[in-house]
Amino acid sequence: MLPLNPVHLANVTSLHETFAAADPFPILVLDDFLDPDLASALAAEFPPLEAMPRSRDYMFGNKRELSSLENVGPASRRFYDAVTAHSFAQFLSAVSGISVFVDSAFHGGGLHQGGEGSFLDFHVDFNVHPLHADWLRRLNVLVYLTPDWSEEWGGHLLVRRDPAQEPRAIAPLFNRAIIMLSDDFTYHGYRRFSAPDGVTRRSIATYAYAGIAEGGMVPRTTRWVPEDAGPIKRAVARNFNGMVQLKNRFLGSGTAKNR
Questions:
Q1: From CA 27, how far away is CA 187, in angstroms rounded?
Q2: pTM for the full predicted model
Q3: Is 258 domain-assigned?
């Protein structure tokens, strides 16, 4: 059985209606998402911030990421086994109305952590999986794992359909999950936050895909739309897709990082 709150598992029809009608795009906020013992064990297993590799979001983000969560500890392995199980894909498909499967390699996902001053500029995620030309990214699942996070510290997930919109803010509270659509207009990110010494913004990111015909979608990488950026950063953001394609052509595809 999935280690999820049984209330959520028993109300899939209601969750689908909420997801489909959400503002500014299909998104679902689920509190008390995981079994509480598992959530606490996952938080305790997070590596120290400095032990995690820096994200490859370049100038557009400041955080750490570790995709191989199945090797972190027993709780992380239990989480990995749960979200890569067919039953979890069925849950996501029922909630979203989209037939999806989870990337078991967690390409760009896994453990995410940011300390004081961490941020992630607004963006929409890559569409076609860099290593599977017949996988189209459709859902992001984020589970926040900082115990006793205070809304006063900031770090809210900000979502909007258009860069000119005022974003909706969702606090990264402990054991809160976000299931959100991923398409060309699902802009999201978080602004710099300030938390007490030793407190980090922790989450696990899981990405779900739908099968497509190879070549049926023009691949693109992350589209960045930074706020309050200088001319150089804005120029890099405008040309980021072409720069990444050029890099991949000569150096191969690296791990694309998002969320």
A1: 12
A2: 0.93
A3: no
